[in-house]
Amino acid sequence: MEKKYNKILTYEDVLKALNKKSLGYFITYISNKNKLLAISELMTIANYYNGDWKPDWNNASEYKYHIMHNSNDDTYAVDYNGRYTLNNIYFKNREDAISVINNPNFKDILNTIYKN
Predict the structure, then answer these.
(1) Core-most of 23, 35, 46, 91, by most CB within 10 Å?
(2) Are 80 and 66 in contact (CB under 8 A)?
(3) Pairing state between β 90-91 and 75-81
(4) Which residue has the higher pLDDT, 84 or 73?
């Protein structure tokens, strides 16, 4: 695909160009603005709970907690990693992640990210 470095592109131009390359599945995922907004909201919520904590990816013994969805029984749970995994939003404490799961005001955000 030829990139137009001297042209001011719109987002629609980019989507049209990618669609011509048979990447419709990719466009559908990326252009789901509700999901992107929900991910941004969960990142903001995690920043609120985490304060100034940043995961230390050089320390495998430091647990980094994240929310996960179990599609078998349609529940949310908390898991942890010692190493970086793509697509996870991390919390410093297990209790904070559980608090997000249990907060009815955050259910729509979680459902949009993990179920839609």
Answers:
(1) 91
(2) yes
(3) unpaired
(4) 73
